Amino acid sequence: MVPSSDYRQFSKVLSKAKHIIVVAGAGLSAASGIPTFRGAGGLWRKYNAMTLATPQAFKRDPSLVWQFYHYRRETALKVKPNAAHRALAEFSLSSIRSLHAPNSTFTLITQNVDGLSIIALDDVLSSNPPEPEEQPRILEMHGRLFDVKCSSKTCGYVQFDRSSPICEGLRGVEELVDKNAMDPDIAKTELPRCSKCNALARPGVVWFEEMPLYLNVIDKLVDKADLCLVVGTSSTVYPAAGYAETVSQNGGQVAVFNLDRSDGDEDADFLFLGPGEETVPKALRLKTD
Ligand code: APR
Ligand code: ZN
C-alpha cells in the first residue's frame, strides 16, 4: 500500500493512539543550522564525519576528533530549537497532548546529541503549569555533545559542560572548515582533561561500535507503542532504524516525516515529505511559529 499523506486521516490515528513514540534524527535539527551526517552537509574539512565518530579514530588521533567535536559544540551553542523541536516538546506535555491524543503516553527517542530538544522542552515546561512526568519525555540515545567523559575506564567521570571554548587548546580552530585547511596538531595535554583524575577526556557521545544508551527502556517503549513518528532520520543506523518496523509488526502505525525519501518509508502508513519544521507541527496540530 502506498503511504498516505492525508493530515486529517493522520489526525484520526493520533486521536486513538495510546502509546506514541518519536524516533528522531539529524533532519530534526537541520533547520536550526546543524548539518546532517549523510548528504550534502556530511563533510567536515576533507573528512567524512562518520569516519571520525569511532573509538579507533579517537585512539589514533584525539586531536583531530576533538577538533571535529569542538566545531560541532560551537555550532550547537550558536543555534536555537526550531518549530519541529518546539511542537514535539509541547506535545510531550499531557495537558497539550490531551487535546489531540487524549489518554496517550509520549516519548521522543532522539539520535541527536545537540541538546536542542531538551532546550525546547525546558522552554515549554517553564511556560506551562507543572505536571508529573509519567515516563521519560526525551531519551538522547546517542549521548550528548556537551557531556565530557573521562576516557579512563577506571574513572569514567562525566561532566556536563557548555563552556566555549571547552579548553584553550581548541580556541578558534572551529573556524578551520575549508577542505584544504591544515589540521593543527594539538598536544594531548592541551585537549580536554577529566576534572577528577586529569586523564584525557572524550566527547560524551555514542560512537559507531559503541552501545547506545537507555536500550532497555527504549525496547519496552517500542514494544508497547501503537504509533511511531519517524522524524528527519535516514533510518540507516541501528538500532533506531529498526524501531518503526517493530511497531508496524506489532500492529501499530508508522508516520515518516522527512525532506526526502528515506529507508523503509514505502512501508509506512503515512509519509509526509517536506521540511519537518513545517510538517511535524501541522500533523500534531500545533503552531509552526
Ligand atoms: N526536515 C526533515 N528531514 C530532513 C530535513 C528537514 N528540514 N533536512 C534533512 N532531513 C533528512 C534527510 O533527508 C535525511 O534522511 O534528515 C535525514 C538525516 O539523515 P542522517 O544525516 O543520516 O542523520 P541520522 O539519521 O540522524 O543519522 C543517524 O548516524 O552518523 C550517525 O550517530 C550519528 O545519530 C547519527 C546517526
Ligand atoms: Zn577521570
Give structural notes.
By secondary structure, this protein is α/β, with parallel strands linked by helices. Helix content is 31%, strand content 17%. The chain has a 6-stranded parallel β-sheet, with helices on both faces. A hairpin with a 7-residue loop joins strand 6 and strand 7 (158-160). Helix 6 packs across helix 8 (116-126), helix 6 runs parallel beside helix 11 and helix 9 runs parallel beside helix 10 (243-249). The longest helix is centred in the N-terminal third of the chain and has 17 residues, at 62-78. The chain is globular. The model has no long low-confidence stretch (mean pLDDT 95). Bound molecules: adenosine-5-diphosphoribose and zinc ion (ZN). Residues 150, 152, 155, 157, 194, 196-197, 199 line the site of zinc ion. Residues 1-289 form the Deacetylase sirtuin-type domain. Keywords: Metal-binding, Mitochondrion, NAD, Transferase, Zinc.
Brief sketch in words of this structure:
The chain is α/β, with parallel strands linked by helices and 289 residues long. Helix content is 31%, strand content 17%.
